[in-house]
Specification:
Layout lengths: L1 E10 L2 E10 L2 E11 L2 E12 L4 H11 L9 E11 L4 E9 L7 H7 L32 E2 H13 L4 H4 L3 E7 L4 E7 L2 H14 L8 E5 L5 H9 L4 E4 L5 H9 L3 E4 L7 E4 L4 E2 L2
Length: about 280
């Protein structure tokens, strides 16, 4: 989703007034409705800066990736509400009603999770924080991924981004099968939002098969993105940019293969290189 802005463009020693397409960024307030005893309660769970559209899949992905829910069937209803706000007249609030809130620790959720579009660790200060969400290492298949599939995946991702070619200012996450076929792709101004949208959609459509899939992201890989992939037992994650130190440490702890700086003839493997077939 984009909008036209008037800008000044410098090129060849000349300044021209032109119109350019810019990716829209708007806040989304995620609210949770749940039953406590016999009473219904509503909590403001999170605020994130996102690209409008796919708010439902974004919310599902966020709740699942942060393990606020462990089964999407706990969700009874998702609805946008409130008055249309902002320059672009979007509803910027969403309400998720749970039909099973017995195992949801709302107090802990409110303490630990607050999103923004470039949050990095999002309040998690150490690798130990992940262990509150995931106790066991995923069991990854022994099948290796061919180097050519790794090299081609960012290009395939870019070709299937509808907004990047227009605005140049938006991230994407794509789910691929191990033979290099793109299964699904989602875009957003926030890297973690794009991944939440992707996971939300694949959960809804039952597309996830961690034994035969990997994820490629358009930018750098940080702790939070690696964590979201691990929650869904993804054993290989690829980024066009570099990973952070904490992302590498996390990948090593859970035996994930982490690949970055992918170019036409090169890439870096930061953890568990044995899963990549070079020859």
């Amino acid at each position: 989703m984009n909008s036209k802005y008037k800008i000044s463009k410098y090129k060849n020693d000349k300044l021209d007034n032109v119109e350019d397409y810019i990716s829209i960024e708007e806040p989304l307030e995620i609210n949770l409705k749940y039953k406590e005893g016999k009473n219904w309660k509503k909590e403001n769970l999170s605020i994130t800066m996102r690209t409008p559209g796919d708010d439902e899949t974004l919310s599902i992905g966020f709740l699942y990736n942060e393990q606020i829910i462990t089964d999407i069937n706990w969700i009874e209803k998702i609805e946008s509400y409130g008055e249309n706000n902002g320059q672009y007249d979007f509803k910027n609030k969403i309400l998720i009603t749970l039909n099973n809130s017995d195992n949801v620790n709302i107090a802990q959720v409110k303490r630990n999770f607050l999103m923004n579009s470039s949050c990095g660790v999002c309040g998690k200060t150490s690798l130990d924080a992940l262990e509150t969400l995931k106790q066991n290492k995923p069991k990854y298949p022994n099948k290796k991924i061919n180097k050519n599939i790794i090299i081609k995946s960012p290009e395939i991702l870019r070709e299937n981004q509808t907004q990047f070619s227009i605005t140049g200012g938006i991230h994407a996450s794509g789910l691929f099968s191990n033979d290099g076929n793109l299964i699904a792709v989602k875009e957003d101004v926030g890297r973690h939002n794009a991944l939440d949208k992707l996971i939300g959609e694949t959960l809804q459509k039952k597309l996830l098969n961690e034994n035969d899939q990997f994820i490629t992201c358009s930018g750098r890989l940080n702790f939070e993105l690696v964590q979201k992939a691990l929650i869904n037992n993804i054993g290989l994650m690829i980024g066009v940019g570099a990973p952070t130190s904490l992302a590498i440490d996390l990948a090593n702890r859970f035996d994930m293969t982490l690949v970055g700086f992918v170019k036409q003839d090169s890439f870096n493997i930061y953890s568990n290189s044995q899963r990549v077939k070079i020859n």
